[in-house]
Amino acid sequence: MDDERSLYNIEALRENLAELNRARQHERDLRMQTEALLQGLHIMNAAKDRDTLFDQMIRILQRLVPFDDGLLMIEDNDGYRIVRSNMPGHQNVFWPACSLLRRVTHGETIGLFDVHLSESWRESAPDSLAMVKSAILMPIQSEASVAIMVFVHPQRAHFNADHTRLLRRFTPLINQALTSVEFHEKQKRDQELLQQATLARLKSAEERRRADHEVGRIRDLMSSAISFAPIYLWEIDAKGRYSFVEGCAKVLGIPPEDMLGQMAHQFAHNLDVEDTQHWDDLFAAKEAFTNMVMERRHADGGTIWVSVSGSPFYDDAGGFQGFRGVTTDVTEAMRANLKLAEMALHDALTGLANRRKFLDYFETSVARVRRYGVPLSLLALDLDHFKRVNDSYGHPAGDDVLVAVANVLKGMVRKTDLVARFGGEEFMVLLPDTDAAGAYEVAEKIRATLAAEVISAQCNDTRVLLTVTVSIGVSTMLAGPNIPSFDDLVERADQALYAAKINGRNRVCVEPEHLGTNPDGEGDAHDPLS
Predict the structure, then answer these.
(1) Residue 333 scores a pLDDT above 70
(2) Which residue among the candidates 19, 425, 426, 511 is catalytic per the annotation?
(3) Nearest CA to 349 among 12, 33, 4?
(4) Mean pLDDT to the nearest integer, 58-62
């Protein structure tokens, strides 16, 4: 019996080490993806033409989704034509319209891990793509154009669902960058026309008339650009009051007459003392500034983010007259940045907090233990026999189970509690102001609820109904001179979890120093301290 227990302990230790390695790899992958997305957003937003945007996008994505070639296709008659590719053999190849491509143009990102299993691909793909075995197709949509990106590889199952999900998250950034490039291209064309008109030398009254007509036409073009683009032009006098505004109603919902004569800074939002001082210093220095991002109040009561650029202007005698510039609505880009920052603190699959966010909240909770003398408890949860789910039904089914478990956990805790996924099938729950008895009660409710939960999971092309059980270890921190570290508290919860596993699973165990007794008087490793 001792030999069997030793073998079981060794095997359990190996499983735990393997899960720890997978969790660390997952955390590294997520950090790399988040950094690449942030870098990609910055680089792509700096692109001024479509060719540069495509080349930068390919370099960024190839680090995250290793593909053999990336193809850019645009609509051409009743089909699509490849207009950009890293391989000459794919250039200008025509791909007839089919149900697969129509789904993508309607906004769906599709991963084909074996293209020969797709009837639409087999029947319509060009001969030049005969060597392709796996592909991902993603839509690219701006205000002016619709295109399709196709990433291909000559090996079957080279791509996976994680690659598809990553590209789906990246799509809004590409769409935003393409819209920005199109705006810059139009702005550049309009500016060139304006320069040509204003620099033309007028030799006769007829030439002046024609020049006036051309300038008027170009002004109309600029007015149209302001009407369609998320920008407004402005001018403030030497005292900081608006003397000219055009396009503000579209961006701020405020008519120009309500801004004229008003101080510029009063339309900002959430400016603290430091921000206000920075603005005053810029104005006093009479220096140009670019891309100063700030919050602005919208007429509907909401808040938007804008990027402000301006430069000083002077009269003929050299006297300072004020600033003139342009304000651009960058709300979508800021929301994308905030979303990426949020992704860095949450598990990509379940949306739960990750280890980094959990550690931050733990430090805050420990401060409450020291200051107010309240207890703090930790639950370590591990799904029983989860490997069997993946082996029997596949990893998509396993992912569905993990998401369902996460939703149950989120629904069973207080707002002050925090649930995190530490990797694989391991979860943690932090319970501030909760002693061992209270933690056991919460853990037992979670265990019973999960055991009764029927989970619908994807298995190939069908849904299957599954049930899972969970083993839970409980550890508790009390106020005193020797406050344990996070690793110490986790180790104690893991030891209790291990006891739950070896005592039959689907049970709750409390760390030894907080064990109680059964109502019948016999010691029991899964009863709390009374």
Answers:
(1) no
(2) 425
(3) 33
(4) 79
Cα–Cα distance for residue pair 69/82, rounded to 1 Å: 12
Residue 466's SS3 state is strand
**Scanning the structure block, which residue is given the tokens 């109680």?**
516
Structure tokens at 173: 């950034």
Of all residues in the chain, the percent with pLDDT exceeding 90 is: 32
The tokens for 443 are 């853990």
Count of all residues that appear for the chain in the document: 530
pLDDT tens-digit profile of 269-306? 665 556 566 677 777 778 887 777 777 777 777 777 78
**What SS3 class is residue 5?**
helix
| Residue 474 near residue 435 (C-beta atoms within 8 A) | no
Pairing, β 470-477 against β 508-510: parallel
In the predicted structure, residue 116 carries a pLDDT above the cut 60: yes
Quick check: 136 and 111 in contact, CB under 8 A? yes
pLDDT at residue 515, rounded to an integer? 45
- In 3D space, the residue among 295, 261, 265 whose CA is nearest the CA of residue 280 turns out to be 265
Provide the pLDDT for residue 523.
32
Q: How far apart are CA 241 and CA 402, in angstroms?
A: 57
Residue 403 has what pLDDT?
94
Please name the residues in contact with 377: beta carbons below 8 A apart, sequence gap of 6 or more: 430, 431, 434, 435, 436, 438, 439, 474, 475, 476, 477
467 phi/psi in degrees, rounded to 5: -130, 145
Cα separation, 208 vs 200, whole angstroms? 9
Report the candidate in 366, 337, 347, 393 with the shortest Cα–Cα distance to residue 489: 366
Strand partners, 81: 74, 94
pLDDT tens digits for range 206-225: 666 665 666 566 555 555 55
Please report the pLDDT score of residue 179 as a whole number: 74
C-alpha distances in angstroms, 164 versus 1, 423, 463?
A: 48, 20, 21
Residue 240, classified by CB atoms within 10 Å of its CB into exposed (0-12), middle (13-18) or buried (19+), is middle
d(Cα 357, Cα 341) in Å, to the nearest integer?
Answer: 12
**Residue 242 — very low, low, confident or very high, per pLDDT cuts 50/70/90?**
confident
- State yes or no: pLDDT of 348 exceeds 90: no
CB 58 within 8 A of CB 68: no
Question: CA quadruple 207, 209, 215, 218: dihedral positive or negative?
Answer: negative
Q: Report the chain's C-alpha Rg in angstroms.
A: 31
Query: What whole-number distance in Å separates Cα of residue 409 and Cα of residue 304?
Result: 34
CB contact at 8 A, 365 and 353: no
Instruction: Give the separation between CA 408 and CA 174, rounded to whole angstroms.
Output: 35
* Annotation says 425 is catalytic: yes
Determine how many CB atoms are found less than 10 A away from the CB of residue 285.
10
**Exposure class string for 432-465: b at 16+ Cβ within 10 A, else e:** bbbbbbbbbebbbebbeebeebebebbeeeeebe
Which residues pair with residue 293 across a beta bridge?
Answer: 307
